[in-house]
Amino acid sequence: QAFCPSCHMRRPGGLKESSVDPAASSTASPRQQIHALAGAAAAFAAAAAASALRLRCGRPMPSDAAATELAGAERRADELLTQATEQVRRALELYEKAAEVSEPGGESLLHLRQTPSARLFRDGVLMDDPKGWAHNREADPLRQLQEDMDDLMSTAALAQEQLVARVGPALGDGEAGMGTISAELIGLCPKPRFCRRALFAFNPGVKAKEAAEAKAAACYGPSEGKRRRRNLMDLARVSLVFPESSSLRAGLSDVLEHFVVADVRNYYHQGIKTCLGQKFIEVLVVLKEDLPVPFICEIRLEELAYFNARQSSEVHLRAACGAFREMYANCSRLDLDAVDRLARCSLTSPSECHKVRTFRRRLARRFGSVVSAWRRRFGAKRCLEFVEFRDFCTCVMAHGDASALWQELDCSRGGCISLFELDPAAVCLLARFRERVLSRVGSASGSDLLARFVGPRKLASRMSISLQEFRSFAKELGFESVQCENLFWSMSSNTDLASSFGARSSDSDVIVGQIVERDFQFLVHKLPKTVGLAFALLELPPDDSDAMTSCTTPRAEAAASPEAWFRS
Fold this sequence. Notes:
568 residues; alpha+beta; 25 helices; 10 strands; 8% strand; disordered N terminus; disordered C terminus
């Protein structure tokens, strides 16, 4: 792997480095150097988005396509990826220009880069993340109190009016009150009333229902199932735009003073990097007055340069996501809106931290795989409480990082971690393997599948499958050699000897591990109860009555009531 200097992230070694020529960089103009760096970063970002889509959706072509159609489909996918890369490069250039304008921020910008994010903890105190991690404490779960989308959109419309009324322009003595101005008529609110150092407040309106459904399905569906919509925190939102970083710091203090703040996520911090290089501060606030239930809204604090870059790059992001969407247009089983949303999240969300990757490697070294570790400790349990996760971290010498890992893995901030958050790659691979096996052999029990692999003559004398036997059958289903090995270790629960040596054997023919009947039972019957497989594969969502039940624990259900949750 090579280090990408533009976005400060690791770039897969397979990507070509011809876009950045070290020999020519000394003679190139600053504009040409920015263009070259943006091209390298765009190639990385587009490849990361394509990899995330292929992980969840598989190859961008119909499964029943003939062999003559596959080559044409692959060429078309390469062309669309090139188009997406070009659109991402244009968006990156806009953010590079915004970074140049923001760099002279001096001491204020340095302070923002060193200010950590903050969460609301159980005693009602907004605490910086490092302090909460040092005490190994769990932050308050954040989620809406309504689960029906129509109810959420209705309350979001009321919350948007309240939010605009509180953030709206400061009027003179002879001017009418804010209550006489409709929220739909306000796009740019000059001179926000509580934050005088802001240039204006921008009202994008309530999030579209289709976009909200796509985000809920792609990001929260695999773990939350039919209750995925309650994790939508950005239905009602507004942006405060500042001339430079020192004004933004003062604006953050004003927001903390005038609102009930539940979460502050600082994208200026040096530990948070996105593929596009976006910089802003996201604040989640709770509104209660004149609403059916308390509602969580989003306030984004942005510098003018980054705000203009975001508005100008939106057309390029839509074109890039449209190219990724077109890759899978022939796959009738996929939810294309969710595909579009996942591509956007891959480009705009922070990259995974090093602690999570290290934690997964420790679990794989100790138990053979992350899935095997989950099965041994929790069986087919749908989600974990923080206490269980903290004990789980103890077995791999990560007890001190339990709180940091919990917040990093809990992307919804709803107090729920499932097997999908721990290892989405293995879950999607198992789901696709399960789908192909059942499509070939039909509905079968674990013993029937084991007999299909081993053969009826050998079944009486041997009740397990080796890696070599498993690989030969999995290749018939269209899986590559690396995928076959990952599938084997994800399914196998008998890896005691391998884990005692602390690593897997390098010889794949004599590697320690085997698959038995209970492993097929887990694949066929228990895996669908552990994770929402349709949401994991971005397939068209099932009816809510048929979706998997929520993964919320009884303790979390008690905390979800308005009286307990907003007691402060």
